[in-house]
Design a protein that fits this description.
Blueprint (H helix, E strand, L loop, with lengths): L7 H31 L4 H31 L2 H24 L5 H29 L1
Helix pairs in contact: 1-2, 1-4, 2-3, 3-4
Length: 134
């Protein structure tokens, strides 16, 4: 008898995170544009803040793809790679939360929700990898 080891809560979280990240990206981009118009945003700092946001978006696609693929196919390597990309996304999120030029309360709320989702997803990924290996 074969048993299914893939995680339904993890798969649902991948879907929800994909939708939320689109909202997060658009809202953060809009806030960066807003801050550049309203505040005296130094030109030297605008490019790095935008670069971090776009780099994060480029990491998000393979992170979610590998996570979904790894979970559904019960492949610990793909899920582990997705977990590694999540670490990179967390670092970039912390940059946007703590070190970007101007941090608004909306930045804090949006990024805190994203970091909580990453944390929950990472815990479920580790649990799924452990189930796949055993």
């Amino acid at each position: 008898s074969s048993s299914q080891l893939s995680s339904l809560p993890l798969q649902i979280l991948f879907y929800v995170n994909g939708i939320y990240y689109i909202f997060y990206f658009l809202a953060t981009l809009a806030m960066i544009v807003y801050k550049s118009q309203v505040f005296s945003y130094p030109d030297d700092f605008l490019a790095p803040d935008l670069a971090v946001l776009f780099l994060m978006a480029m990491l998000e696609v393979p992170r979610l793809y590998l996570g979904c693929k790894g979970n559904l196919r019960e492949e610990e390597a793909a899920l582990g790679l997705s977990l590694g990309l999540t670490v990179g996304s967390v670092v970039l999120s912390v940059y946007l939360l703590a070190w970007q030029t101007y941090v608004l309360w909306a930045d804090v709320v949006l990024t805190a929700v994203l970091l909580c989702a990453y944390g929950l997803e990472s815990g479920l990924k580790v649990t799924a990898i452990a189930a796949f290996v055993s």
